[in-house]
Amino acid sequence: MSTIVTTLVPPAEGQLHRNIDWRGAFWVASGVPALVLFSIGGIAGTTGTLAFLIWAVSMVMGFLQSFTYAEIAGLFPNKSGGASVYGATAWLRYSKFIAPLSVWCNWFAWSPVLSLGCSIAAAYILNALAPVPLFTDTSPEVAAYIAAHAGTSADAITAVTAAATPAIRNWTLYGHTLGPVSFTFNATFFIGAVLMLIIFSIQHRGILGTANVQKYIGLLVIIPMLIVGVVPIVTGQINWANFSPLVPLAAAYAPEPGAWNIAGWTLVLGGMFIAAWSTYGFETAVCYTSEFKNPGTDTFKAIFYSGLLCMLLFILVPFTFQGVLGLNGMLATPIVDGSGVADALAGMVGGGQLIHSLLVMLMILALVLCIMTAMAGSSRTLYQGSVDGWLPRYLSHVNEHGAPTRAMWTDLIFNLIVLAIASADATSFFFILAVSNCGYIIFNFLNLNAGWIHRIDNGHIARPWKAPSWLLGLGAIFAYVNAVFMGAGAKVWNPMALWAGLITAALIIPVFCFRHYIQDKGKFPDHMLADLGMSSSDLAVKKAGMLPYLTLVAGVVVMLLANWLFVI
Fold first, then answer.
1. What is the three-state SS of 283-332?
2. 190: number of CA atoms within 13 Å, CB side?
3. Nearest CA to 450 among 26, 76, 22, 16?
4. Which of 11, 54, 286, 431 would give a disulfide with 271, using CB separation of 3.0 to 4.6 Å?
5. What distance in Å separates the CA atoms of residue 534 and residue 543, rounded to the nearest whole number?
6. Nearest residue to 42 via CA among 95, 116, 98, 134
7. What residue ranges of the chain have pLDDT lower than 70?
8. What pLDDT, on a 0 to 100 scale, did the predictor assign at position 144?
9. 48: phi > 0 → left, psi -120 to 50 → alpha, else beta; which?
10. Contact in structure between 420 and 539 (CB atoms under 8 Å)
11. How far is the C-alpha of 30 from the C-alpha of 366, rounded, in Å?
């Protein structure tokens, strides 16, 4: 068996710089655990007492899948952009159009983290600076209203709360409905836009500057998340009754227990579907292969240790969250829509108003951290997709710091549009989340199968780290499990989410055709296959035969069957 020794290409002008080791990538990826803040309320609202198990099972799946990504990333020491870029090359022999689908779907899965994260962070800031006042039946204002008006105490609380709510909470410059969602230019949008611009300016300094900043923010975030996860256990706040009965809800966002029937399983699969968007995300640690000083060793260490961190926090935080709040607490509106999650987590620790305010601030920093992670990873996916001939040429530009600024600007403009939708209401927020996760599951399916395709077609190439064959096979099985999550679970979040996600995925076809057939005249760049020691003529050899095509057909069938069988 022959081997090909791949040399590291030194960065030339206009290329990414080799400035970090695995620790730098670990700190850049350390924002992933904060993704729990995006959907912890939504998953609790749809799966009830099963929520903590949803997070744990999803995280274990994500960790086991990551070993496939670690292997294929090692094949490409001179590429950036993550597993989607490395996996796309495996599919290139079998279809020009399937390969760029992986890159595209990974980008539109990761990119909305910017807008969704900024909308949540803006909501936290508004809660801190202009909180909605709380009134009860015994509040003097409520008693005065009842004395002056006819009606129940509930009517009085609603009226008094509306009158005392700061005007900025209801202010909107412009809003409208667009198909299944709404969009609005309100206070949340403008605060989120400012946060996004600040993060953009940090990323402008390149990966080394980003990693250095995120190291310190990461320490300020990971430690408080550990505190939030551990303190309620140590202080005895966990109510074990909050974990039973272990059955699905009868209906989403209602406390009545249901049964393990088709409707119940659909809600559970919906929870697994949306959890995957967060728990699988640490694979972004291999986005920076061409920026590693020693990619042969740094690649595996980056994704492995990032996975261990996520394993700890994605299991611990949802467990204590449910153990303290219970089902009714998790179904409260501010928890379900995400705006009150930081307050709830801070309240679990206790310690007075100062500690509460400090923890809320650290939760905002956690969101900033995961937004930085997403901008770093998604912009490099666009960059490498352009360098390799999948996406328009203008995206391959980098500045003097080695930052892919045109890809970053594209991310920024796209996310300002998405931010206007995410800022409207919880329905619009979860629609965006579900559509982006459809892209993530498609990418996931293609790349888990890219592992064994690379083994067949490129088995002669030395791998810095080689996954055990049983893990590679397990990853291929998980690809179909994830297809079930997508087919059955996307509808839980919006009836149109699955179809909108598939349409969004299909948009790569005109984009790729423009680059490949108009800009490149039907030829791929010569350097695209350099890491594999191949040229374009070698793509004619298809050692896997019909297996990749059968895999794709089976994946589509599994998804459609799941969508037909599982209904609410």
1. HHHHCCHHHECCHHHHHHHHHHHHHHHHHHHHHHHHHHHHHHHHHHHHCC
2. 10
3. 76
4. 54
5. 15
6. 116
7. 1-22, 24-25, 28, 78-83, 151, 203-214, 286-296, 401-402, 529-538
8. 83
9. left
10. no
11. 9
